[in-house]
Amino acid sequence: MSSSDMIAYPPNRARVHEACGPASASFALWTAAQIGVDVLWVRERWRSEQLYPLGFEGFDPSRLILARTKDQIDTLAVAEEALRDGAVPFIVLEMTAPISLTAGRRLQLAAKTGGTTGLCLIPEGMGSNAVETRWHCTPVFEARDSTRQRWSLIKNKSGTIGVWHVRWDAETHCVAVVSSARE
Question: pTM score, two decimals?
Answer without folding.
Answer: 0.91
